[in-house]
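ARCHIVE CARD
SHELF: 3
SLOT: left
DATA:
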Amino acid sequence: MTAIKNAVLVMRDHFIPEAMLLIEDGKIVDFGEMRHKEIPEGCDVIDAKGLYVGPGFVDIHTHAGGKDLFRENPSRAAQVHLSHGTTTLFPALYFNMTTAEYLEEIELIRNTMKTPEGINIGGLYMEGPYLNPKFGAERESNPWTGPVDRKNYGPIVDAAWDIAHVWALAPERENILEFVEAVREKNPNAVFSVAHSEAAPNEIEALMPYGLRIGTHHTNATGDRVKYPECRGVCVDETVNYNREIYAEMICDSRGIHVDPYMLRLVRRMKGDDRVILISDAYTSDAPIPKGYEGVDDILFDYAEEIAGTKLTLDVACRNMIKHTGASLVDVFKFASYNPSRAVGLYDRGEIAVGKRADLVITDHKMNVNLVMIKGIRYELSALR
């Protein structure tokens, strides 16, 4: 049994100061104020020294960790995220791969999940194959611009069905329902996300009964349906904002480039704090920083001088969210842990509660990570970084 003492526990909607928490067999078995609890004899005791103990971060959408893409070195990429408090992550496989390349990457991630280095890889986020070819970095190399065809997507669904938690798609693609039904036939619990899309509200809402409940990197790579030149159209962003059931993924960089700080605050007000998800959408690129973005150090660009992901980890995204929106530590832990775990159906983690997995992170008030645990096992940060 392990005990954490002298902690400020970060709950879903409040703090418990001067608290302790007990872990046994990888799960939380008790917690509360130290004055009302006793630490059993023989426990391995960790002194939090007044720091914050919250649920480990859950990053459902990331392509890389540090300098490594998951499709090239998933072990190293996963360890980088773990060192920053992410105890569950979904590598995102992008649409710029052929069927054969998808199969190769799915097998690579599946095998890495079985290793100690891949302990925090919880599955896959399929950012494709059927997105709108008008949107996204490297869209000039999109091999999926043709019709939805089972002979192309079938092997991918068969290979990834049990570890692919999220399938991102553009609802306006012709015959997209055929693809959705094929995925659900293999996995009735699959979650879908509207992504790289200019779909109208009715096209998006038509897929909600089939499990569409996420908006991929909200306000990024989305179009606009304009009926009249002098009027603003209604499209993906408005549909995500309007529908209570849909979670909004947010990329929160330091300058508010992916999502303007005012938009971050607006989305929080419209969606409510239980439907906002922070993601890193981390990537790698050696393309130069375009003119006008000098000094930007946490986002990336492609050779067309368009935004191509970030260098973020979720601890930094949380810090940025606090800065841009005035969110509290309680709020950002919800955005980075509880909400994403609920959105993808991982109900065994994402909060401090009896019976939940002891996936925990200890941070200071600036979200600097001091300790990380998965199923009650402590990982040395110096060995991960």
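SLOT: right
DATA:
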Amino acid sequence: MKIDFVSDIACPWCAVGLNALETALKTIGDDIPVTLYMQPFELNPDMAAEGVDTGEYLAKKYGMTPEQLQGARDTLRERGAAVGFAFGERGRIWNTFHAHRLLLWAADQDALTGKSQQRALKHALLRAYHGEGLNPADPDVLMQLVREVGLDPIGAEQVIHSPMYTNEVRQAEQFWHDNGINAVPAIIINDRHLLQGGLPADVFENAIRRIAADTAEVAYTGRSK
């Protein structure tokens, strides 16, 4: 089974959704072999390199009062804790484009090595951004995470300090936009089944099992329900 996880590092519900999906996949185990791909999406593609204050940005974008913002943060912390993700204090919203370039490079490394380091890097980026308030556009932060997950630091440094994977990120983002993805997280299973949002783990598990069963029935009978 192929699963594309379309998301932005700046999206807190993407952190919740990815951890919930990982919980579901762990529960499913070897019953259903899954290949998980991290796909790029930018909520703020025009964000300046220096970022913006989180509270001011969210208040302006959503018209929320400080009390409403705090309520939203509390809800995120609760949902995150339920799937093992710890939200910390994050004072700024950062540009995520360079992190997406690095993630696509990591996917190519996985294709060569057979490992799942793109997946590990995505988790590390979400934790750094939402758990530690670190800037994913900072080359030092990116290199720290590269070493943490065991990716090649020399290759990563070449990507970070060059325009490599710029076109690939833009093309992938355009592909998802052209196919109707305008909000994240968006989870596409086998290129045809769409799940959206930071759903609970059991919802992901049930959907994956149902799709796998339907796929098996089609393969056996030539008909779907």
